[in-house]
Design goal:
One of its GO terms (biological process) is DNA integration. GO terms for molecular function: DNA binding; DNA strand exchange activity. This is Recombinase family protein. The chain is an alpha/beta fold. It has two domains: 141 residues, Rossmann fold (3-Layer(aba) Sandwich); 97 residues, Hect, E3 ligase catalytic domain fold, CATH 3.90.1750.20. Helix content is 47%, strand content 16%. The chain is built from nine helices and eight strands. α6 packs across α7 and α7 packs across α8. The chain is elongated and about 70 Å long.
């Protein structure tokens, strides 16, 4: 039997022992060798969530190759690496079943080649989705509490540097932010301000040239007034707001 190996890690899990792509592949290859499967190829999605399949390039490649019957079985390390969506799982399994392709996990007791295996898969997929939803609820609750405590809710923003759970003003970038506010008060035109910024050689944190949209984003960000935004709510931040005094800081 020709086997396709599918492995995935999310950004958070990349450094976790046992979840790494290399660890998953080693385990699956050993499983395939023990079962006498010939490995057709490896499909790996790096740093991508398992909540859906639409945004995973190698998952899409796997499905296209499945339609062409390039392999007989898909072997995964664990169901959570394949998908955490019950709807996606059922859709894929129905697709595989029509093609005569099985799905097998090397760490869990199911094999879609059997009726019992398909039943076990359904039960396990429900728990996998529940685990994802509970994790999401915990993350949202933790972020909301951070916001209530005045801690930062963003990872980066022009004009500030990360300072633990807070932000500190970046004097060099503060010049750009101040210039944008001052020029907008003068011209009242987003495109005109963006053009003036480009003429001065100003860029964003990653070197992108300003345009009307990015100027608008800066002008409407509550963070410069001392507030953090999370889930549509404003919270007083513990960082220094962009008052004229703050923007004139040189350190």
């Amino acid at each position: 039997m020709k086997a396709a190996i599918y492995i995935r890690v999310s950004t958070v899990e990349q450094a976790e022992e046992g979840y790494s792509l290399a660890a998953q592949e080693r385990s699956i290859r050993s499983h395939c060798q023990a079962k006498g499967y010939e490995v057709y190829g490896v499909y790996a999605d790096r740093g991508i969530s398992g909540k859906d399949i639409d945004h995973r390039p190698d998952m899409q490649r796997l499905l296209r190759d499945a339609d062409e019957r390039k392999f007989d079985i898909v072997v995964i390390w664990a169901l959570s690496r394949f998908t955490r969506s019950v709807a996606d799982l059922y859709q894929i399994c129905e697709r595989f079943q029509r093609l005569g392709i099985s799905l097998e996990s090397c760490t869990e007791p199911f094999d879609t080649g059997t009726a019992m295996g398909r039943a076990m898969l359904g039960i396990m997929s429900v728990f996998a989705q529940m685990e994802r939803e509970i994790t999401g609820e915990r993350v949202r609750a933790a972020m909301l509490e951070r916001a209530r405590q005045g801690k930062r809710t963003c990872s980066e923003v022009l004009g500030y540097d990360i300072d633990g759970d807070s932000l500190k003003i970046n004097a060099q970038e503060a010049e750009i932010v101040q210039y944008i506010f001052n020029r907008y008060l003068e011209y009242r035109n987003l495109s005109a301000v963006a053009e003036l910024c480009r003429l001065k050689g100003y860029t964003g944190k990653h070197g992108c040239k300003p345009n009307a949209y990015t100027v608008r984003v800066i002008l409407t960000r509550p963070i410069y007034a001392g507030y953090n935004l999370y889930s549509g709510q404003l919270f007083r931040g513990n960082h220094m707001p962009y008052t004229m005094t703050a923007m004139n800081l040189k350190s």
